[in-house]
Amino acid sequence: MHERRIAEVIRRLGERDLDQMLVCDPLAIWYLTGYYTQPFERFFALYLGVKDGRQTATLFCNRLFPDASAYCNDIVLFSDTDDPVPLVAAACDPQKALGVDKDLAARWLLPLMGARAASGFCLASDAVDATRSIKSAEEQELMREASRINDQAMSWLAAQVREGVTEEQIASGLLAEYRRLGATDHSFSPIVSFGANAADPHHEPDQTVFHKGDMVLFDVGCKYQWYCSDMTRTFFTAEPTEHQLEVYETVRRANEAAEAIVRPGVTFAQIDLAARRIIEDAGYGPYFTHRLGHQIGLVDHEPGDVSATHDEPVQVGQVFSIEPGIYLEGDIGVRIEDLVIVTEDGCEVLNSYPHEVCVLDL
Predict the structure, then answer these.
(1) 100 and 229 fall within a common domain
(2) Which residues pair with 320 in a beta bridge?
(3) What is the DSSP letter of 203?
(4) 279 to each of 72, 79, 198, 234, how far by Cα in Å?
């Protein structure tokens, strides 16, 4: 049980006048207790509360789940033939509102409401999300290692580019390389894009064959001891044209301008604007079609984006992506993405793979 993390979630609940919450996201439960299982269709939840001034935590587990006794002192076990709703209702204070997270399915929430388990129900995922957003020193170190592995994997990816290879062939070989380097899995499905396919920001690798002269975009990430990495690089495979070079250098400048202003107190919206203004001034504003970035940790996209609508200031310990792009349909797409950790006086860029124009030697 991670008592300090639970205490921080409860503190954040208190700021919303909430004394109890039901957490159902399995990764959030792992984050708070150290216990992980994938429940599939079965009920699984962690009840957090305050009773007589003391924090309480109760884990609700099906008897089929692995033993959780090493991770939580208060466990309520039930079988497939038991209804968990009365068990949860018994743990709740019916005189107070209950916060629930976004993973609580309606098939459990509605019966809890019908049982009057609480005086009211409200979405309280932000109490957990905001706690997870600030990475501890240990978490930061794991994310550094995940990005170090990703940097090495990018070199492997670039070496796979050759005449006749398909996007799918390169993408399908990446997991073995990640595992050789010490990672356990992808943090998301890898994006491998040849030529005009890179103009689709979320292109899925297919049977497109590489031909020399195609630009190549890789957007990839791995998991290392639960924590994710994410990076994008765009390569040339022949000397770039003036047009290609202009697009590439615009994206590079946008990436580096945004990274240069990251520091505590600067808002996510200001960081987005620093990159977006450069792309707009170059005449490519309509072709930068997405937010500048996203927070990252136990999953690749965690709540709290780097966008024009997010006016909160960044905080020390937050980790997020900086990934400007320009996408010209039927022509080219360029994206350059790094992860950064907010520090006391700026930020630490987790990726060391170069931004400079790279023409692959084929």
Answers:
(1) no
(2) 295, 340
(3) P
(4) 51, 57, 17, 17
Residues 181 and 305 in one domain: yes
Q: What are the φ and ψ backbone dihedral angles of 79, each rounded to 5 degrees?
A: -110, 175
| Mean pLDDT to the nearest integer, 211-236 | 98
| 97-100 β-sheet, strand order | 75-78, 54-62, 45-51, 20-23, 97-100, 120-123
Is the pLDDT at 52 greater than 90? The verdict is no
- What are residue 20's DSSP bridge partners? 49
222: which strand partners? 186
- Distance, CA of 109 to CA of 25 (rounded, Å): 14
- Are 62 and 138 part of one and the same domain? no
Any bridge partners for residue 334, and if so which?
326
User: Residue 102, Cβ neighbours under 10 Å: how many?
Assistant: 14
Would you say residue 359 lies in a domain? no
- Residue 255 pLDDT > 90, yes or no? yes
In angstroms, how far is the first alpha carbon of the chain from the final one?
52
CATH number, domain containing residue 337? 3.90.230.10
Rounded-to-integer distance, Cα 10 and Cα 318, Å: 20
Residue 356 lies in a domain: no
Residue 53: HSE in the Cβ half-sphere, 13 Å Cα cutoff = 0
Mean pLDDT of the chain: 97
Which residue range forms the structural domain that includes residue 114?
3-132
Contact between 318 and 133 (Cβ < 8 Å): yes
Cα torsion angle, 176, 181, 185, 190, sign:
negative
For residue 360, tell me if it sits in a domain. no
| Residues 6 or more apart in contact with residue 157 via CB below 8 angstroms | 170, 174, 192, 218, 220
Residue 113 pLDDT: 97
Q: In terms of domains, do 239 and 147 share one?
A: yes
The residue out of 132, 165, 188 marking a domain boundary is 132
Same-domain check for residues 224 and 345:
yes
